Amino acid sequence: MAESAVIAPPLQPMTPPQPMAENATEAPPQPMAPPQQMAENATAAPPPQPMAENATAAPPPQPMVENATVVVVVPPPPPDSTTTFLCLILAFFLPPLGVFLKYKCEIEFWICLILTFLAYAPGIIYAVWVIVK
């Protein structure tokens, strides 16, 4: 079966628009027609009729899939060495924050907070010791 090729005609260069002659004038805009009035014997659309008593309403929508299983993918926690390294870095700047990331609000956090308030250096030493142990 032979395929036929369609060849488009060559494109013609566009010519710039010609200027209007000096004696030519534009046509004045035409006024719009006034809106037409509704005929006197015309009536509006009839009001909607109430539903008959024997008619039934549409059934409620059914779920598309029954007993569907939803799978939630939770990313794994960072490796323990990464968490420990991050906590140690934070322990040098804000000792209670480094301990909080590892132990949350357990007793280690509160001891570190009190030591940091009393003197900064004991807070750092305790935070490093608790995080490494």
UniProtKB/TrEMBL annotation:
Superkingdom of source: Eukaryota
Keywords from the named record: Membrane, Transmembrane, Transmembrane helix
Main localization category: membrane
Biological source species: Triticum aestivum
Lineage of source species: Eukaryota, Viridiplantae, Streptophyta, Embryophyta, Tracheophyta
InterPro entries associated with the record: PMP3
Name the record gives this protein: Hydrophobic protein
Family: Belongs to the UPF0057 (PMP3) family.
Chain spans, region Disordered: 1-60
